[in-house]
Write a structure and sequence with these properties.
- InterPro entries: Auxin_embryo_med.
- The protein folds into three domains: 80 residues, no CATH class; 117 residues, no CATH class; 101 residues, no CATH class.
- It is elongated and about 90 Å long.
- The termini are far apart.
- 33% of the residues lie in helices and 15% in strands.
- It has ten helices and twelve strands.
- With 320 residues, the protein is an alpha+beta fold.
- Strand 1 and strand 2 form a beta hairpin.
């Protein structure tokens, strides 16, 4: 029914949308399927009665997000629903692929513009749904910019090396107040079933986004007067069963989708900590370095300091 080349095929001499649609309907009605030699180009009509022949790889049957109109030819916009199954026989994919989503993301990066919440949500919902070792490798090697929040509903693109996961509430507030631009990776608020916050943060970590607490350079602990340090029992500073139950209740929230092993690890890190009291004021320097070579210097005096690397918490001892 079809022919071996575009030149041999009478169908390719037609340019009227109505005529070509009739031919497609005829082929679909009789369940025609192409052989390896048959050409598979798809006719895309334009505003008039003309159009162009395009490669099936440049087409897609559906685009629920409506974001791929400039990148792909969406056939459901041009043809009736009953013809779409026929186009799948010609090699047209049903929905945009991982490659298509990456091209879309790169086009947003290169456009030098802000990103809407809807655009960002659509992209990362797809990534969460199709997460695999291949997806991880794909994103790690190809994404150079990632979204950060801003004061408006629009999101900004920043170099992946200058974006952090806000895993420490104190540091998060501290750097938000001290930085002239956003630093923390975007995630939907509140967490959504289609893109859970915990899952997104795990994905960000696997593609190279560091936790802020692990990235900052800490200098303040060396200034503590070691002679005045006194190890204290957790119960003396209200670290007891009540607090542990409270933390367990928080991490068990279904919306976090945190695995049992991760929950136990969070509690174990608290149980294994050593606590020290000091009469001296605790001063900390936080200095994360950015890809530009700049440093964000933040100094703060605190009544309590957590040295995660050495599993120690320092508390300023107040006079009674």
């Amino acid at each position: 029914m079809y022919c071996r080349s575009n030149k041999e095929c009478g169908m390719y001499w037609h340019s009227g949308c109505v005529t070509i649609t009739r031919i497609y309907k005829y082929l679909s009605k009789f369940n025609w399927e192409p052989t390896k030699e048959d050409p598979r180009n798809i006719w895309i009509p334009n505003a008039g009665n003309d159009g162009e022949w395009v490669n099936p790889d440049d087409c897609v049957l559906h685009d629920k997000s409506c974001f791929f109109g400039l990148q792909l030819h969406v056939l459901e916009k041009h043809y009736d629903k009953e013809l779409l199954s026929f186009f799948s026989k010609l090699g047209v994919k049903s929905n945009p692929s991982l490659d298509d989503f990456l091209k879309l993301w790169k086009s947003w990066e290169n456009a030098d513009r802000s990103l809407s919440q809807s655009e960002c949500q659509t992209f990362w919902e797809f990534i969460v749904k199709h997460w695999s070792s291949r997806t991880e490798k794909f994103l790690s090697e190809n994404l150079s910019k990632l979204p950060v929040g801003s004061d408006s509903n629009e999101l900004l693109f920043l170099d992946k090396r200058d974006v952090f996961i806000a895993d420490d509430l104190f540091l998060n507030d501290l750097f938000e107040q001290s930085s002239s631009h956003p630093l923390f990776i975007w995630y939907p608020q509140p967490s959504l079933p289609s893109s859970p916050r915990q899952k997104l943060l795990e994905i960000y970590g696997k593609i190279g986004v560091p936790n802020l607490s692990e990235f900052v350079l800490k200098y303040g602990l060396s200034s503590i007067n070691c002679v005045g340090l006194e190890q204290v029992q957790p119960k003396e500073i209200f670290i007891g069963k009540g607090l542990i139950k409270l933390i367990l209740g928080f991490v068990a929230d279904p919306s976090l989708q945190m695995e049992a092993r991760t929950r136990h690890g969070a509690l174990k890190s608290l149980v294994d900590i050593s606590f020290f009291a000091t009469p001296e004021q605790i001063t900390m320097d936080y200095c994360p370095s950015l890809s530009s070579g700049d440093f964000l210097n933040v100094k703060v005096s605190r009544m309590m300091c957590w040295d995660r690397e050495n599993a120690k918490i320092f508390i300023q001892k107040l006079e009674k």
